[in-house]
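BUG: 3D viewer hangs when loading the predicted structure for this chain

Environment: internal workstation, default settings.
Expected: structure renders.
Actual: progress bar stalls at 90%.

Input used:
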Amino acid sequence: MTGNGSTPGRVLVAGVGNVFLSDDGFGVAVVEQLQRRGGLPAGVELVDSGIRGVHLAYRLLDGYHALVIVDATQRGGRPGILYTLEHDLDGARDETGAEVPALDGHGMDPVAVLTLLDGLAASMRLERPVERVFVIGCEPAVLDEGIGLSPAVAAAVEPGVRAVTALVTELMIDEGVSR
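Structure tokens produced before the viewer hung:
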């Protein structure tokens, strides 16, 4: 572990959301597609967290350079549009640096997971186990009960895969870890 508790070069990509609430299953669909394809750099772990936020917080105690959460994210845009957000101690920020509201994970609030992680780490006398946290979010069209993504969000799965791949590749290059 490094001085801040994270492990250099390790990145966790977590697909979150409830597959029984239509477009809320976006993150799970992206991670499933990434798992089928493989090919991410060594040191990148993929996990379908679903709505198991407590399990995700405990897993993060192992220490990671970065966490990439893939989720449906309501920000008022057109359904299917992708957002890349970075969360830090000062609050969530979008790609322009503007502050954004807390993320609503529809039963698995990423901010709540990070707050739980901080509490767990402090109680175990661990330094901060994750250096950077990103969200690749997709604007949902439908969050009602139902299985399957709306057409707009289903069409965003492949661009979501590309966005995650580009982000983790960039993170690994920044850490000096080769593929």
